[in-house]
Automatic annotation (TrEMBL):
Record's keyword terms, sorted: 2Fe-2S, Iron, Iron-sulfur, Metal-binding
Domain [2Fe-2S]-binding span(s) in chain numbering: 24-96
One Pfam family hit: Fer2_2
Molecular function GO labels: 2 iron, 2 sulfur cluster binding; metal ion binding; oxidoreductase activity
Protein name, per record: 2Fe-2S iron-sulfur cluster-binding protein
Amino acid sequence: MLLRWSAPLLRCAGSCAGRQKIITIEALGNTAAGKLIQNARRELEVVQCGYCQCGQIMSAAALPAQNPHPSDADIDTAMTGNICRCGTHVRIRAAITLAARNAHGDALASKAE
């Protein structure tokens, strides 16, 4: 998965021609959106096995730019196609909410249990 103009795109599903801005998981940590989601995931201890981590982070990093105040339903829609084998969906959603709030200067979300 990569971000093309801040929108998630499966690498095998789209062509990347011309001068489009492409961000991979390796470069995402150097962006503001990447730092926000990575910090939120660390703070809420989202990661367990790591199976889904790359796809989850790429999809999550794109969401706040597209929707500054995502609802749970918005997050679920944005994360469709990402599978978490550990069942940390509640923490994944909480981390995305926290990152979106931090991106827009809102109060911090409470930690997920």
